[in-house]
Amino acid sequence: MLEGKVAVVTGASAGIGEGIAHALADGGARVLLVARRGDVLDRLCAAIGDRASGLALDVAEPDAAQAMLDAAVARFGRADILVNNAGVFRVGGLDTFDLAALEPMIALNYAAPVRASYVFARAMKAQGSGHIVNVSSIGANLSSATAGVYGGLKRALEIASDALRIELAGSGVRVGIIAPGSTDTGIFDHLPADRRAAATAGLTPLAPADVAAAVRFMVDQPLHANVPHLRLYASGQQH
Length: 239
Hints:
Number of strands: 7
Oligomer: single chain
CATH architecture: 3-Layer(aba) Sandwich
Shape: globular
Number of helices: 7
Structural class: alpha/beta
Strand order of the largest sheet: 3-2-1-4-5-6-7
CATH topology: Rossmann fold
CATH superfamily: NAD(P)-binding Rossmann-like Domain
Helix content: 40-55%
CATH class: Alpha Beta
């Protein structure tokens, strides 16, 4: 189902995004990998081969969505799949949360994927086909005393994604949300050691390849089927 398709993946330079890039390319898609670190993208594209091309930009910038679409069309002729994966994880209690992080989190975790979803959905609707997958988190449906901003933004992204899916019903454009649980990426690296340990205590976290396989499952469905919301938990996760 992926042979000949063109996919755009944000946050593609490491972790889940890198895994998704490999999974889609392995399935036959050509992939435009988007991240800020051009040197890392170059190495990743070299590893994937001629199916991959890199685009170094900050997806939180207002003009990034159109730049991604234009690059996909210029390099591969079209855009069939968009995976909005880029995001940032910042937590903190009332007395410790860095309020300076609020606007950057809104820009990257909510505004950027919504803007890209709309820009790509308009083009996909015009061509009569396409698939958008927005990467959320199980945190979207959990209430934590220190992760209200992160969870709230992911929940808002899910609502916006679902509304877009409903609006596009019958157009040939599908929209889905994947919400991973604890995953072994760099997302916890900025936390103190005790918080990092607590985040994965008692379980084996998901690997980026696990999440990537789930994304490939979503976009590899027949055209008459859509997976609107997929939660992927580590098997030992209790919340």
